[in-house]
Amino acid sequence: MFDEIEFDKIKRLPKYVFAAVGELKMQQRRAGADVIDLSMGNPDGPTPRHIIDKLIESAQKPKVYGYSASKGIYKLRLAAADWYKRKYGVDLDPETEVVASMGSKEGYAHLVQAITNVGDTAIIPDPCYPIHSQAFILASGNVARFAMKLNDDLSLDEDAFVGDVKRCLTETSPRPKYLVVNFPHNPTTATVTPKFYEKIVALAREERFYILSDIAYAELTFDGYQTPSIMSVAGAKEVAVESYTLSKSYNMAGWRVGFVVGSPKLVGALAKIKSWLDYGMFTPIQVAATIALNGDQSCVEEIRQNYRRRRDALIKSFAAAGWEVVSPKASMFVWARIPPPLRDLGSLEFAKELLINANVAVSPGVGFGPAGDEYVRIAMIENENRIRQAAKNIKRYFKESGVKVSEESDPPYTQG
Ligand SMILES: Cc1ncc(COP(=O)(O)O)c(C=O)c1O
């Protein structure tokens, strides 16, 4: 009906590549297969008990059922500022430099909506977390991309990155106004040093563009690596904002709580657009989130160690299956290059084959951008035994497909 009425914005959004794997996963499950699902970045663990208890306690108070504050209750914004002070020694004004968001995805997408004029360009490295680029498309902006270069240990090649940004600035018309950075990076797990932020803040000040930083995986770090924050750089608040989320560090993905901090101009734009679009998160969720940030942080250490154990199990068992993958220093993912004879399939076909032949679901790298097509992203959202079982299944499939498989004996597998 009404074929002449078309939705240009929706047409510019690509079909979600992950939907293809998702549909196949459901088909396999319906057919009775025991699919080991390592596809989405959706934490499988429970939210720590004291946070749930606070939600229950708060939900029993009579005055919490009305509309809340769209930019977040003051105590939550203060808790976010205190988190930055404790973790990074950064001072933030909870009134002008912090906005609470319904998860960092919502905060980011609405910020982009608020600050993008029609045709504005943002530089987004390839590959990326899909909303980082699509938010600009939804806001009628454009995206300039470059293939991000990583070192062998998956740390960012920081000088190459700065060079690529400079090139994008001079070669792209209209000249980009925004740069998006996300370290630890989804999907590649790439990490950066504090020096990196000094360099890009200096560049942003000189070349006059804003930086949107996303540190969703700030707390999921291993082997002594510490996630730096752009906010630690002197003057960063003039040119940058940073988003953080409780989804990953506290297993609170379904609660939808995060925050955006930094440049009062950008934070103010987000607060203003949110005041038009929503009435804030349910107050008890905000109260419980405040407790999460202010309370005992040993739960974060437990969550981190859980991912670390899974990572170690994955690296070891996949190596025994003939798939050598680089051990990530951070995040809940492994960014795995597809082994040679199967690499030619491309990441989408490979992910489908893996699902059909090994009952293992992963995310095809191409879903994060063309530069990801030789890789798949493996999310560590099943337990160690299931990860080892995935490796066994993969080994069998690799043998059948002519991939060189290690002759080492299989890692032990116990049902559990
Ligand atoms: C880099 C990155 N940012 C943000 C998010 C979304 O987080 P939230 O649950 O806070 O919206 C994700 C989720 O996977 C992510 O990978």
What can you see in these coordinates?
The chain has 416 residues and is of the alpha/beta class. The chain folds into 2 domains: 142 residues, Aspartate Aminotransferase, domain 1, CATH 3.90.1150; 231 residues, Type I PLP-dependent aspartate aminotransferase-like (Major domain) (Aspartate Aminotransferase, domain 2), CATH 3.40.640. It has 16 helices and 12 strands. The strands form 3 sheets. It has a 7-stranded mixed beta sheet, with helices on both faces. Strand 5, helix 8 and strand 6 form a beta-alpha-beta unit. The longest helix has 23 residues. The termini are far apart. The structure holds pyridoxal-5'-phosphate.
Give a summary of the structure in a few sentences.
This protein has helices at residues 8-12, 17-30, 49-59, 74-88, 103-115, 130-138, 158-171, 194-207, 236-239, 246-249, 264-277, 283-294, 298-320, 340-343, 347-358, 384-401, and strands at residues 36-37, 98-101, 121-123, 142-144, 178-181, 210-214, 240-245, 258-262, 333-337, 360-361, 363-364, 375-379. With 416 residues, it is an alpha/beta fold. It has a seven-stranded mixed beta sheet with strand order 2-8-7-6-5-3-4, sandwiched between helices. It has a three-stranded antiparallel beta sheet with strand order 9-12-11.
**Sheet bearing the most strands, described?**
7 strands, mixed
Relative helix content: 40-55%
CATH class of the largest domain: Alpha Beta
Side by side, the strands of the main sheet go 2-8-7-6-5-3-4
Strand content: 5-15%
Number of domains: 2
- Return the average pLDDT rounded to an integer: 95
Question: Would you count the extended β strands for me?
Answer: 12
Which CATH architecture of the largest domain?
3-Layer(aba) Sandwich
